[in-house]
């Protein structure tokens, strides 16, 4: 296909994987550690650097139209999350990092098999793949940590204010091990998953594009506001505080203490913008220009108590999960399952990022043998991840397939495999032509 599109052959190929987050949802952008694995599904880009200044993009999937632009005039429209903008995010990240102004172009063919808008990070895999394509085309090098940080930052050009989990695992993953990803400074530590269990992904088949709605950024904003109100309550310099983790770090207390402080300082009723302004002693204008993001300007209610409770409790669950894996890897499947179930309940009730289909799917997964099941990724649709005892896997897959995906007339809903076992895969790679 590359040859028929561009009349030449690729000089190199880059792959970057998607991921499934085992536990730690919506806490990376609050500064807390998460525990994902890279999956085998990935973005693969075939590349030929060219002497002109034009970037030409094509896709093996006809849903994603051809695109071309000048390498020296990258425009990313935040209001339109079209596919090529994710590529341009990765490109622009590298361009800006090196301060390059006169770039040569390239022909690229993109081929991806990560279900899009399903919480398995197809978007970040594309951004990371494009970042590594650009770096390779330039003949330059960076560490994996630098690449992850650059791509996490540059994906925000698409308009969503994500954390760095997806880009970090896409670059730092290693086959056979989950990673605890910590931020500021970014680092990834191996976590051995229990040998008697398998992690299974199931797709609710409800797609949710983060950048096309404001759900995601509203949560980021609510967490930022909660952090500021908690900081003010504790007489910290609240205007310097952006993340819930910073409040804990500045106070030097435990996550359990932060849950108690949340009870004392915040109320469960939603906050209006006016009430937030009164609490922080700022004007509505200051709130809008200094704290809210462009697509959260018109939000009328912010649930600060619920979001902070989710974040601090989820951060504690990640640490408990990791400690259990380290302390007794062969005897903890049930306990790990319970933690995953608690995570789902918190995402559903406190963070409100589930949906009826995801709730039904986790119920189906638990009913047919999962010790625990939860939504994974941003939510509001997308996939679940379940922990299943290895000996129950075949019956689990068959039963979930039948219970969730089979229509009453016997026909199956999805075309692609929608419930499948996964194991920790490797990170992004460059393949050079011999
Ligand atoms: P995810 O949770 O998968 O990251 P997002 O909604 O953030 O979901 O991003 C999905 C977007 O990524 C798609 O709308 C599309 O623009 C882009 N994308 C995903 N897969 C591909 C692909 N194979 N080729 C091109 N673009 C893709
Ligand atoms: P996905 O599942 O790819 O939409 C998003 C964020 C993550 C993280 C999760 C929720 C981006 C690129 N990704 O992931 O950083 O916050 O939601 O845990 O914004």
Structural write-up:
This protein has 434 residues and is an alpha+beta fold. The chain has a domain at 2-191 and 425-432: Ribosomal Protein S5, domain 2. It is 41% helix and 18% strand. It has helices spanning 2-6, 83-98, 122-138, 144-155, 165-172, 215-233, 244-251, 255-265, 273-280, 284-291, 304-327, 333-349, 356-367, 393-405; strands at residues 12-23, 35-49, 54-59, 67-70, 106-112, 178-182, 187-191, 197-203, 372-375, 383-389, 419-422, 429-432. The strands form three sheets. It has a six-stranded mixed sheet. It has a four-stranded antiparallel sheet with strand order 9-10-8-11. Strand 6 (178-182) and strand 7 form a beta hairpin. Helix 3 crosses helix 4 (144-155). It starts with a helix and ends with a strand. The mean pLDDT is 95. Bound molecules: adenosine-5'-diphosphate and 2-acetamido-2-deoxy-1-O-phosphono-alpha-D-galactopyranose.
Q: What keyword list fits this structure?
A:
434 residues, alpha+beta, Ribosomal Protein S5, domain 2, 4-stranded antiparallel β-sheet, 14 helices, 12 strands, binds adenosine-5'-diphosphate, binds 2-acetamido-2-deoxy-1-O-phosphono-alpha-D-galactopyranose
CATH class group of the domain at 2-191 and 425-432: Alpha Beta
End-to-end separation: 20 Å
Q: In what order do the strands lie side by side in the largest sheet?
A: 4-3-5-2-1-12
Q: Quick one: how many beta strands?
A: 12
Mean pLDDT: 95
In terms of per-residue confidence, which ranges show pLDDT below 50 for 5 or more consecutive residues?
none
| Protein structure class | alpha+beta
CATH fold-level name of the domain at 2-191 and 425-432? Ribosomal Protein S5, domain 2
CATH arch. level architecture of the domain at 2-191 and 425-432:
2-Layer Sandwich
For the largest beta-sheet, the strand count, sense and barrel status come to: 6 strands, mixed
What portion of residues is helical?
40-55%
Instruction: Name the beta content range.
Output: 15-25%
Total helices: the number is 14
Distinct small molecules: adenosine-5'-diphosphate, 2-acetamido-2-deoxy-1-O-phosphono-alpha-D-galactopyranose
Give the overall shape, derived from the CA principal axes: globular
Global Rg: 22 Å
What pattern of helices and strands is seen along the backbone?
Answer: HEEEEHEHHHEEEHHHHHHHHEEHEE
